[in-house]
Amino acid sequence: MAEQTRREASVARKTNETDIKLTFAVDGTGQSQLQTDVPFLNHMLDLFTKHGQFDLTVDAKGDIEIDDHHTVEDIGICLGQTLREALGDKRGIKRYANVFIPMDEALAQVVIDVSNRPHFEYRAQYPSSQVGSFTTELVQEFLWKLALEARITLHVIVHYGQNTHHMIEAVFKALGRALDEATSIDPRVQGVPSTKGVL
Question: What gap in Å lies between CA 175 and CA 52, rounded to an integer?
Fold first, then answer.
């Protein structure tokens, strides 16, 4: 079997609200270089990268004097775009994944179908609306834009928890591991894993 080409992509997105350069490699080693104005998102993206064994570089500046919304949303958009491009025609991938991750008292579940049909379901109720200066509603915004731009079906369920930081951390770890599993190459898969013949 021929050696698998490294699956990676880069994007630059500049608007009146944000200026982002992002490179994402599906076949990585868990390395991240993150420069954003949102420290909590840096932390979550680092966890996502490490547990997914991806490589991720983000250089993002945004209008955080207003709030973090535009920066978080646009990073989700860029990550989704690079994921979709990096996967190409999706030949040989497992396609599906279902991962549970505990973080102390919290338990999160992420279910993925690399389907070319963007859909997002989110079930999470956090005890606090803030983690430090980070607004927890931005987790949903990030994940929805990621799913939309990557054209994946993404279900995220936080089953329970008491500490908001732990609950969100479990989500990002589960996201990394589920995406790693769904995009991994299965040598038994011939072509695209769909009866349609295309994803």
Answer: 8
Is the CB of residue 178 less than 8 Å from the CB of residue 154?
no
For the chain, 199 residues long, the average pLDDT of each consecutive 10-residue run is 76 97 98 97 98 98 95 98 97 97 98 97 98 97 98 98 98 98 95 86
Would you kindly state where each structural domain of the chain is located, as residue ranges? 8-183
At the fourth CATH level, the homologous superfamily of domain 8-183 is Imidazole glycerol phosphate dehydratase; domain 1 (3.30.230.40)
CA-to-CA distance for 178 and 100, rounded, in angstroms?
A: 9
User: Which residue shows structure tokens 């079997």?
Assistant: 1
How far apart are the two ends of the chain, measured CA to CA in Å? 23
